[in-house]
Amino acid sequence: QETSIQHHRRRMIIESPAPDLDPGLARTLRHQAATLISTLSFRGLASVRFLLTPDNRGYFLQVIPGLMPWNGVSEMTLGIDIVDAQLRIVSGEYLGWSPSDLAVRGHTLCLRIFATGDKIETLLGLTLPDGAGLRVDWGFAEGDQVNPGEDLGAIVIQEPTRQAAIVRAKAALDVLDIQGVQTNLPVLRRLCTALSPDRFPC
């Protein structure tokens, strides 16, 4: 996954697979991550993070245990239920799949929505996009009180290609309507407009 696009130190757009990552390097990093976790005898869910240099070299950064806020990206990319996997691991049950069963499917984008106001606001209205290949993970309903900076939810989109995912993301943001709460939607719309098939916005 690519998590570099941030605004005020908050990750705004997550992509899978990372668009500028060489496929050979991606396989190497996945192997290194699996080897590290195996060596640690770790049981559970964890994310292994790497930094990618401009000359396309990857360096280990950190291991973060547990679910990430954008776990929906991994679920749609790999076609598995990560929360179910975590519960099965804790219970000592069989996962029902092995690493060899997993394969990256198409291209996935995650758009994270935040409250950006400076006071508590009330969510007055909410219109969300829907359709096949689109997942909405939302944590609020109309009438709820929202604190400044609170994470409202995310839209996860999967399409066969990155360009199709970008087009779908723009369409989803056009439909998304949040009333009563100031959000980062204007920034997300600008970022999606700036995305191109082969690079991130500068």
The sequence of SSEs as H and E is EEHEEHHEEEEEEHEH
- Uncertain segments are 198-202
Structural class: alpha+beta
Helix count equals 5
Adjacency order of strands in the biggest sheet: 1-2-5-10-8
Strand tally: 11
What's the alpha carbon Rg, rounded to whole Å?
18 Å
Q: For the report, how would you describe the main beta sheet?
A: 5 strands, antiparallel
Principal-axes shape call? globular
Describe it for me?
With 202 residues, this protein is an alpha+beta fold. The protein has five helices and eleven strands. The protein has helices spanning 23-39, 71-78, 82-91, 162-175, 185-194; strands spanning 2-7, 10-16, 46-52, 58-65, 107-114, 121-122, 125-127, 134-138, 145-146, 151-159, 177-179. Helix 4 (162-175) runs antiparallel to helix 5 (185-194). The two termini are 19 Å apart.
Draw up the topology in text.
Elements lengths: L1 E6 L2 E7 L6 H17 L6 E7 L5 E8 L5 H8 L3 H10 L15 E8 L6 E2 L2 E3 L6 E5 L6 E2 L4 E9 L2 H14 L1 E3 L5 H10 L8
Antiparallel strand pairs: 1-2, 2-5, 3-4, 5-10, 6-9, 7-11, 8-10
